[in-house]
Batch of 3 targets.
Target 1
Amino acid sequence: MNNRLESVLNSTAPEEPVINNYDTITSAINSVNEEEEFRDPLGKARSIIITPLRPIDQEQYTVRINTWRRNELLLASIDHHSRCDGVAQVQVLWNDPDNPPPEEIVNHKSGLVIIEDHTSMNSLNERFRVLTDDTPTLGILNIDDDVLYPCEAIDTGFFLWKNFPKRIVGYDKRSHAINPSTGEWIYGKLNDVSKSNKYSMTLTRYCFIHVDYLSIYTQYLPRGIFDVVHHQKNCEDIAMSLLVSALTDGQAPLLADNWALRSIIKLHVDRKISGDSNHLIMRGACVHSFARILELHPEQRTPLQLLPVPASTSDAVFRKNFNTADNNLHLTEREKKLRRSLAHWSSENIDLERKELMRRAMEFALPLGLVVETFENSLRVGKKIKEKQIKHVIRNKLQISCGICDQEIQVAKKSYKSDRRAFLLKYSLLSKNWQEEIM
């Protein structure tokens, strides 16, 4: 273990409140030793040659699940991912010092589960510290315990990654933007990406990444970034995304196929860090300062790319411009199998086929009530519509004033139960896409 990592792991984590002021966060990052960081903050990391893929790395990957006291979600995630053909091993990052992992997880029926004990340190940096000896594959599917994708959607990302193993392949698109009043970078949320149709980062809650980058993050990430992630319990995904971009000439991550991105299944959690009012303030400070330290600003060594979001043509199941192996003879056996299974997809049936894959992926989580209950998700999986979901439609989708909400909800419920088409006609303010979704 290098001295920098050891000093952080052995530190008594600060008891002071998490910093939530932009200037204070920036000052904390800027306080790093310039002699150490700014000559070339990634000098040693740049000299590392990423390990070439072996035959097994063309076919399989290792899942790493970050979890914290959500055993039902964790088990549902393991049950789902362990049945995907491409999974060689499932590594569970156990962070709970007060409770041991349940027996059904330790001795999971799949025989694929390895428990990594990360209880000695409460830090988001831990999700990138590999403790398992001889991880079977170089490809890592790094995930949170509250997100699922169908196995086929996972494979589209994996087969793209194996062609570009030096890049991250993600399932979330995010960006940086410029604050017009200050000229500093800010964090671009999903809505911002949708408006600009450009992205530059991805989230590590679900992404493929070369295992070597996990070691590089742990050993060579500039101290200022490492410490901010540790103390503020945020921005580890920004740090990793920008780190890999800095090591690949400023290239943005790649994204899995568009239909795969739309196949996300969110599991229910009681509280999200992103719900904190200071969350975006902190992430904006992280984006601006991390990018400056990693020399990704326009005037610096490797300016960060803003890439156009891949076109969402529904029949483009595989994006030819990203595939280097169009000749079927160069495809792996699993890739050939996946292409055969999706060969009948077209612009007419792709949404129905995608939803069927999602239903299968929900097999373990849905009976336990773990799938987030949105109006659209309930319709998708054939569940009974709850009053709170109708209320969401009335208030948010239709923007009907709350003064008549209760009365309108009762009318809407009766209309929905008796005739779904009449329901849509009556509430004609529903968008065309949303109408298609629930029909």
Target 2
Amino acid sequence: MAISMANQKVPAWACVVLGVWCLAATLKIMLPQSGAGHEGAVGLVAGPRARVPPHQPDSASSRDSTASALPPWALDERNVRIPRDETGAVLPSAERLRLLELKLGGVSNWAKDPWFGQRVSSAAVCKKESDLAEFGCPPKQACPGLYSHKVCLDNLPRPAPYGKRAPLRPDCVVYDFGIRAQPEFGLIMAESFGCTVHAFDPSPVTTQWFKANTEENAQKLHKLPNYHMHAYGGGGIDGEVELGTYDWGQVSILRYPPYTVDCVEERKRFEAAKANAKAAGHGPPNPFSFRCKIVPSHQAKTPLPVKTLKTVMAELGHTRLDVLKLDIEGSEFAFLEQAIDTSSLWGVAQLTLEWHHFTTDPRYGTGSSPSINALQTALSAMGLEVMSVNYFGGWPSDVLAFDQQKLELWYNVISLIRPRQ
């Protein structure tokens, strides 16, 4: 897509960049610089404790005065959030501008590395990585698809050998978002490491599986005092979202188009007409004379409860997480965006997630995902560095239903750690 300006074609993304730059400049003029002018960069990279030295007059009340100086329209958060710190106070303008730069540079690939979000960081130093199969998959057996999320064992409790149960370690807390009927990740963290595990999944397939308590792993989980299942998911809001039918009997935030085009039979007619015309010595038929079928599609949707990371941690009384795992069928984007805007990730030591449905920048091809780059650029600035990438660029969906919907969907599993200072 391009926009014509003075008979010149200007890419749409360039107009977005220009528009956001103007907005950033306006914000810089409008917002008072509460506190030292350099503390924004320090806070964004070094963490909340390093954000403001005690002698700086940048208390919560002074930050609130920053927000009160704005006109009402600038405080409208019905769709776009105002970035805030851990206390809920509006971030100083310097930090907000830098966060805006990180988001914009990442999503437009106006940056040093178009493959930043799917490239292992040299800062992510880990002596012992594990996909946890050594603790859950029987020796000399293959367990495909069950152990794809890697964690760094360096700072986790000492694990028990395969088949053994570790002593309880209440100081180790793990959140496992997205279970289906495959709870291996959370089961091992609870059983082999002794961590307190909170699992979250609102999908009917998970609710029925866990309630029935007939499958072996479900029975194990019900017996573990340190494993807790919650019938809600992760999202960018606190409330209900419509989740639709999806692969693996799961539900997803992904929406199908209401209609698709079926050209299979019409292509056959066109090729036959072309062959007949050639045999008769005529020119090829007019393709505009052939019409494909417009086919309605159907996707059952169900309103299901979701919560943000900030809300979940507050309700469960946690200020830090040893591991946060996300496999939430496309909702990871909204979930992480909200967590970044509310400064909710500073207490997360490790993050392992499956990216779903991400796009690719046509200028750079495989692995250059604007949607992932935007988030990973902000995550890295906040101290979470890429430790592991399952496949550079990810893998495509092989589901016929998605192909029929003309949806080209890509996936990847990436793990991040917060290097110890």
Target 3
Amino acid sequence: MASPDLSTFNTILTGFAKKGETQRTKYWLDEMQQMGIAPNYISYNSWIDSLAIAGKAAEAQAEWEKLYESMDYKGNFYACTSVLSAWANYARQTQETDGIIETALKFVDGMEKKQVKPTIVTYNALLKVISACEEPELAEKLLKQMESGLIPTEKADVVSYSCVINAFAKVGMAERAHEINKRLVANTKPNTTTFNALIHAYSRSSDPDRAEKAEAILDEMKTAGVDCDLLTYCTILTCWYKIKHVDKATRARLQLENMMKNYSALARKHRNSEELLRNAQTMVITACAHSSPDSGNGHETLEIATKTYREVQNPNHVTYAAYILALKILEQDPQKRDRCISEVFLRYCKEGSEIEDLVRKRLEEATSPSLFQELLDTGTELQMQKKLA
């Protein structure tokens, strides 16, 4: 059997690095050296990548500094980008943002001193750090410098604009995000991701008309020649189920139907298409559950919830909980309500594993104490039978 070579080890390192498995990455980095195979910049980049994905920013930066001093690492801007990504991941994972932007800015300023020239990729990584720290005004300031050529690199690209849109989205400033998107369309070609980020900004905003404004973005996408994907529709549905609107259930269902018209083509763009479809269906049911039964269309809304529930091929506990809540709110016949809720819950117990807290809570809210206990006992017995089968 042939001994592993540098290429083999780099493949192993890259695999573990992409998962953020720092211990395994470091193990194989040490192992190759013990076998007399000298790591190259790809090997060390994988090590820094693993730290970056794990959000171990201080360690990633320290490793980069150490490697620069110990080997010919000059010009390796890729590793610099990984260090910045590490700080962005650290901010997202820990919610600790104090001093992170200052550290990242200082790191970029120091790159040229080490003969590593920052590129557009570097500044986009810096924008991601600023976005993760939820400082959209600072992100836009940097974007303007990139647009005007004040920063000695290529001008802002679609990634640059997306980072700033995301920064405004995180704090619910949808109109500001929309302004950035218009500048993007004027200066470069947008893509599906940028428009999805804009719709996400509306889903995070408090604008009472955010659902209609999110839907209007579909026309902007068509004008710009940009295709929708499943996330586009899912994010619009998020807007609908969150707001107060007399026709929210009908409007949410309409978006789901629009999505289903092109589902086969849209699904090819996602590895998790089945999960996204289930999420979309569950959001329609949730929109129904949060509709007011006093609006005069409670029966129609319940029909939408029931139709959508029956279409879900692999419901999860959130789907079941949403439909139980819809039955509780919208079914006016007490006997029929109890019967339907019982059927839904027992189906859940037959198909699921443990009874999730959310389902238990919705069941308790929707039934009398005696029926709740009866269903809980029957459901537990069903699950025991399934485990023993």
